[in-house]
Specification:
about 950 residues, alpha/beta, Anaerobic Ribonucleotide-triphosphate Reductase Large Chain, 10-stranded mixed β-sheet, 3-stranded antiparallel β-sheet, about 40% helix, cobalamin, EC 1.17.4.1, oxidoreductase
Length: about 950
């Protein structure tokens, strides 16, 4: 640790007064004399997590304490993943306070020990602000921090590692060992094998070398073994090979050949599903492969020229290949099996802050961390939705000032962690302490863009994303320069000072050249411009504390911890989500961001209600009532009828990349109709647009699919031990008595007048409906008579009113339009009006709210307070649920006789166990995602990795 110096003189954010040392910390969210814990309501929850396939309990801890605003999913994941101590023992953590205190107190103590704060009072403010931000899900550290910090085990804080391997057997065996130790700790690692001589070169003994591809087999088998025994997640790894390596074609074809093997074995009757008994015989399945291309190769591809492959020992060209054919071979392989991805070497090293200490040759498994060999990076991600503000008039703004202050707080904490952190190998520890690489990023970008009325694939969406990314990285390096003034620059800075300052100017120039779009992004760009000016000025004076500051990681488990709707830089998966409820059960909801987006776009509450109800029914916005065609793109998602075009993903990456120290973890999803040429074009455009790395996945391209819901015994045709007895149930009609209470309502819909009489059972359950239109003898009047008789008979046979309401609301035909009912101002048809009115008169609040039907008073209350009903915490009414397993309806809903069981008409909530499964059922698609090994639910993509919404497990960094 270098000796501290007096602090920088830049306002109150981080200044040391004359003759003082350390940071002055200001309060942003907290109040002096009040602890953040005392400002929230705490409650006890029971966490019981099961494998839905066999009903077994995976995890159980009862009575854990969390704030009342934390979701069920966030509570479950944090309790099961991050609480330390054996379950059932006094040492086991029992609440969020203990978890946050364990981490935050460690950070504060280390900050004081290593001279970061100007006074104990500043240290206390730092502790309170950090606690508040974690408590309120404003940001989160990566998983290793929660696993390890403040415990008796090694305090590893990094999730991302890059290793190295040289052309010697000793180095190769060290690679196996180091990689295994990192996997054992629940993290991932990447490395470049290009130093290993090719199979076309000779050994010193005179024989042919094995080549890097052969050594990949041993590492792959090791990763597969550790994966199955890991307690936190499967092993994640990245293998990179330079495009000029003589074995590059064999490297490209490794997974293609294995995919052919999978097809052949499957056709022969072997179980080749993901997680199947026979899939383990297939090689190279435990790593992501990437080819490292340079500008020379890409120019040769464009010109159709030959390209030289160089020997590893001599560096001389030993073979020429057709660059275009080699590039197409990469595209063909990726089209078939999603590998290899591509990394652009010259772009990566053009933005390298420490080139004098070595080139960047590889990345971590998810491709966002790129720096020196034998180094690591600890991550933290901010929840962007926490910085979106709405005023009383409905105007939105992104709070750039508060965002910058939180970035400064997080960067300070992240740098402190390196001072006390442990590392899996001494080499990694030395490099990380010498260069202090950080990886601040964000989550919920997709949700933020939708909520602000921006299409993900739009100039406005890219401008806002670029502005936020630029402000984040600019603020991070500004704080890094301020930290350098207090506790000194990183050890490798002096050697790399010119290069580091050059890269800072590159970032500042990119910021100045970026396109401004609207009233949301322009103020953020202004704040970013001011930050980059400070970076250049303070960097010239003090240097920098960190060689790297920012990346965009997948934010898998921590995204769920923060209750984020979207991960990393990803768009929303689909418009309808799967949500767990307090006390058990689940429901499907329309994303909370949809009503915000519609309000931003100028739609009235009645229109918002109708559009949201349509989405709940259909899963998309196509033909939504009143939604203008030009606004459809705002609601485009990663999956579905209106999915984002592949180039839309690449353009978003290009918008953020110039403002990141590292890269972006992202897979470009492509439809099954995509061709090899389409894949090649994505790879080519990635290079042209300045992206550092990307991967593609063509839908349904891989043979291995998740195991079906059928049991193995059922698949093999085995019979159950005892035959099942089939019982047939028939409904029984429950007639109304002669005397019955009723309500008669007059109405007008689009100028057509009518009367509705709704009669009830004595116990207050709706039993019949009569409809009369003003023009007697007309076809419409006759149809309404027949329709009302059919509905009445159905009610008496036990069909729930809720079912009729969900089926007939939003049905569109003339007459339609304005009504004379204050609670239902617009109707798509007479049928739409009738069942909205019946829902308001006969269904309990919780049931009709879940169907998106509210009175005028309730809508007004929502506009004023953000809630339709005070105290309604278990139902996410802002999302407007469409269907779910619910508690037994109240007496206002007609019940059939005891012997008349009524089947649940919507099977989706019973069968879907994650948003991915729900999207598949709504949209009729196959997400091609693996099943979680812990809880059996289908995972979803998070960057280049997969995330389980059920238990928080990931397939890579988090």
């Amino acid at each position: 640790m270098t000796e501290t110096t007096s602090g920088p003189a830049r306002g109150s954010r981080a200044k040391g007064g004359k003759g003082t040392k350390g940071l002055r910390v200001e309060r942003v969210h907290t109040t002096a004399g009040i602890h953040p814990y005392d400002e929230v309501v705490w409650e006890r929850r029971d966490v019981v997590m099961t494998n839905w396939r066999d009903g077994s309990i995976n995890f159980e801890q009862r009575g854990v304490e969390f704030p009342d605003f934390w979701s069920v999913n966030a509570v479950n994941i944090v309790t099961s993943k991050y609480f330390r101590g054996a379950v059932g023992t006094p040492q086991r953590e029992t609440g969020l306070k203990q978890l946050i205190d364990r981490v935050v107190h460690t950070y504060r103590a280390a900050g004081e020990k290593f001279g970061y704060f100007a006074s104990p009072a500043d240290a206390e403010i730092f502790e309170h602000e950090l606690t508040y931000a974690l408590l309120h899900q404003v940001f989160s550290f990566n998983s290793p921090v929660w696993f390890n910090v403040g415990t008796a085990q090694p305090q590893q804080v990094s999730a991302c590692f890059i290793l190295s391997v040289d052309d010697s057997m000793e180095s190769i065996l060290d690679w196996y060992k180091e990689e295994g130790m990192i996997f054992k700790g629940g993290s991932g690692a990447g490395l470049n094998l290009s130093r290993i001589r090719s199979s076309k070169e000779l050994l010193s003994s005179g024989g042919n070398a094995s080549g890097p591809v052969s050594f990949m087999r041993g590492a792959d088998a090791s990763a597969g073994t550790i994966k199955s025994g890991g307690a936190t997640r499967r092993a994640a790894k990245m293998v990179v090979l330079d495009v000029d390596h003589p074995d590059i074609e064999a490297f490209i074809e490794t997974k293609v050949k294995e995919e052919e093997k999978i097809r052949a074995l499957r056709d022969a009757g072997f179980d080749m599903d993901l997680g199947g008994d026979d899939i383990t015989s297939v090689q190279y399945q435990n790593a992501n492969n990437s080819v490292r291309v340079n500008d020379e190769f890409m120019r040769a591809v464009e010109a159709g020229e030959s390209f030289g492959l160089r020997g590893r020992t001599s560096g001389e060209i030993i073979e020429h290949v057709d660059a275009r054919k080699l590039f197409r071979k990469m595209a063909e392989a990726a089209h078939v099996c999603a590998d290899p991805g591509i990394q652009y070497d010259d772009v990566i090293n053009r933005w390298h802050t420490s080139p004098e200490s070595g080139r960047i040759t590889a990345s971590n498994p998810c491709s966002e961390y790129m720096h020196l060999d034998n180094s690591s990076c600890n991550l933290a991600s901010l929840n962007l939705m926490k910085f979106l503000s709405d005023d009383d008039e409905g105007n939105q703004s992104f709070d750039a000032e508060r965002f910058a202050k939180v970035v400064e707080l997080v960067i300070t904490a992240m740098d402190i962690s390196i001072s006390f952190a442990d590392f899996p190998t001494e080499k990694i520890g030395e490099t990380t302490r010498a260069f202090r690489q950080l990886g601040i990023g964000y989550a919920n970008l997709g949700a933020l863009l939708m909520a602000t009325g921006h299409a993900y694939d739009s100039d406005g969406g890219r401008a806002l994303a670029g502005a936020i990314t630029s402000l984040m990285t600019g603020t991070s390096y500004r704080r890094s320069a301020e930290l350098a003034a207090v506790v000194g620059p990183y050890e490798g800075y002096a050697r790399n000072a010119d290069a580091h300052k050059r890269v800072m100017r590159q970032h500042a120039d990119a910021n100045d050249a970026a396109q401004r779009s609207d009233d949301l992004d322009t103020p953020v760009w202004a704040a970013a411009t001011a930050a980059w000016r400070d970076v250049v000025r303070l960097g010239d004076k003090h240097g920098f504390r960190n060689a790297q500051a920012s990346v965009l990681a997948p934010t898998g488990t921590i995204g769920l911890m923060m209750d984020c709707d979207t991960t990393g830089v990803e768009p929303d998966l689909a418009l309808v989500k799967y949500k767990k409820l307090v006390g058990g059960g689940s429901m499907q909801i329309v994303n909370n961001t949809v009503p915000k987006a519609l309000k931003r776009l100028g739609y009235q509450p009645e229109q918002v209600e109708a559009i949201v109800a349509h989405i709940a029914e259909h899963g998309n916005v196509v033909d939504a009532p009143g939604l203008r065609l030009e606004h459809y793109e705002v609601f485009d998602c990663a999956m579905g009828e209106r999915s984002i075009a592949p180039m839309g993903h690449v353009r978003m990456m290009a918008a953020a990349q110039p403002f990141l120290s590292g890269a972006i973890s992202k897979t470009v999803n492509m439809p099954s109709s995509s061709t090899v040429d389409d894949v090649a074009e994505i790879y080519h455009q990635g290079w042209k647009l300045g992206v550092k790395a990307l991967a593609v996945y063509v839908e349904n391209s891989k043979v291995g699919q998740p195991l079906s819901a059928k049991t193995k015994d059922a698949e093999k045709g085995e019979q159950p031990a005892e035959p099942e007895r089939v019982v047939e149930y028939r409904p029984v009609r429950r007639r109304l008595p002669k005397g019955r209470p009723g309500i008669t309502t007059s109405f007008t819909v689009g100028g057509a007048e009518g009367y509705m009489t709704a009669n009830s059972y004595p116990d207050d359950g709706l039993g019949e409906v009569f409809l009369k239109m003003s023009k007697q003898g007309s076809t419409l009047a006759g149809m309404m008579d027949a329709f009302s008789i059919a509905v009445s008979v159905g009610l008496q046979y036990g069909v729930p009113l809720e079912t009729y309401v969900s089926k007939f609301t939003n049905m569109r035909f003339e007459p339609a339009g304005m009504t004379d009912d204050q609670d239902v101002r617009m109707a798509q048809s007479i049928v739409d009006y009738i069942f909205r009115r019946l829902a308001l008169d006969f269904l309990p609040f919780e049931t009709r709210s879940a169907l998106g039907i509210h009175t005028a008073t309730e809508r007004q209350r929502h506009l004023e307070t953000g809630s339709y009903e005070p105290g309604d915490e278990e139902l996410d009414v802002e999302g407007l649920s469409q269907s779910a397993p619910r508690q037994a309806p109240s007496a206002s809903v007609p019940q059939a006789a005891e012997q008349t069981p009524v089947a649940e008409e919507r099977p989706a909530p019973r069968e879907a166990h994650s948003s991915t499964e729900l999207a598949e059922m709504q949209l009729g698609l196959n997400a091609d995602a693996p099943l979680c090994l812990s809880c059996g639910t289908k995972m979803r993509r998070a960057g280049s990795c997969y995330l389980c919404e059920g238990c928080g497990s990931t397939s890579g960094c988090s």
